[in-house]
Amino acid sequence: MKNLLFSFEDLSAKDKAAKQAGRFFSRAGANVVQQDVPATVKRSSGITYREMTLTFADSQQVVLRIKQSGDIFQVLVNGKALPIKNQDDHVKAIAEIVQA
Question: Across the chain, where does the E strand assignment appear?
């Protein structure tokens, strides 16, 4: 499966796509030690989104901001926005995030 689509309504750390994201990060060499998905829905620039926070073994944090469509529209690495070149290919995007 090339694209990871999150279920906006059912988004949780136990979600299939969330577990898959964790596995992709592990394969890319970043060991996920904690996944957190707050129940709160946020809005920014007219976009409604939910956040998924991934904490890695080296204590770095990645926050995935997921739109209602299930797409990731923004990635924060240690609190800073990271522009992603391969937005349509989640495996390549995750590799990019791990490099950062």
Answer: 32-36, 42-44, 47-56, 61-67, 72-77, 80-81
Query: What is the pLDDT at residue 1?
Result: 33
pTM for this structure? Answer: 0.80
pLDDT of residue 11: 80
Give the span between the Cα atoms of 19 and 80, in whole angstroms.
Answer: 23
pLDDT band of residue 4 (cuts 50, 70, 90) is low
If DSSP states are collapsed to H, E and C, what string results for 45-70? CCEEEEEEEEEECCCCEEEEEEECCC
- Please, is 6 exposed, middle or buried when counting C-beta atoms within 10 Å of its C-beta (0-12, 13-18, 19+)? buried
d(CA 40, CA 24): 25
What is the distance between the alpha carbons of residues 5 and 17, in angstroms, rounded to a whole number? 7
Total residue count of the chain as it appears in this document: 100
